[in-house]
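#lab-general

N.A. 3:47 PM
ok so I finally got the sequence cleaned up, no stray characters, all 196 residues accounted for. can someone with queue access submit it? mine expired

B.Y. 3:52 PM
send it over

N.A. 3:53 PM
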Amino acid sequence: LCAFVSLWRKKLNFWNRPTLNSYYLPMKKIDTTFLIKIPLFTGLSEEKLLKMKQIMQERTIDAGTFIITENEKGTEMFILLDGEVEVSKTLLLKVAGHGLDQRDKLLNKLTADDYAFFGEMALFDESAERSASVTAKTKCSVAVLTHDTFFQLTESDHEIGYRVLMNIVRIVSGRLEKTTKDVLKLTTALSLALER
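B.Y. 4:20 PM
back already:
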């Protein structure tokens, strides 16, 4: 297995990237008063939030570590409890005189004060690839929710599954609307630049 992982990391050009160096702790930093502020859990009662808390694990992540790597498949969602992360996407750019170059484009910086969460699509589609990379800018503490534990809970409590799914639909819809507006602005700017 170690040889396979080593070969896989080299094939995907990961040898210079730090790996997820973490360990699990009992849930100390997170409570229902924090969970209720996370948009993913809007509408859940304190009793339901306690159930969610029970299936999460706290993980400490070193600065510079990739928490999520773009194009990898994942089965975990993360809630940022402490620290700062950067969300980035790899872009292929044309560099004058040098052909094409791959670079990471910083999309967003998030802190625990943002009640940030990421990787939520892994709760519903474990075959989906991550759409962006998330890197710990500082030492971070995250709550981890796995696909399997989430589905075990939702099989016994359908209301939690329904509420979380409806919140994800609302959140993804908002993100899609913003992306559509951004693409329209970029297309308009490109069109104007090409006319000159």
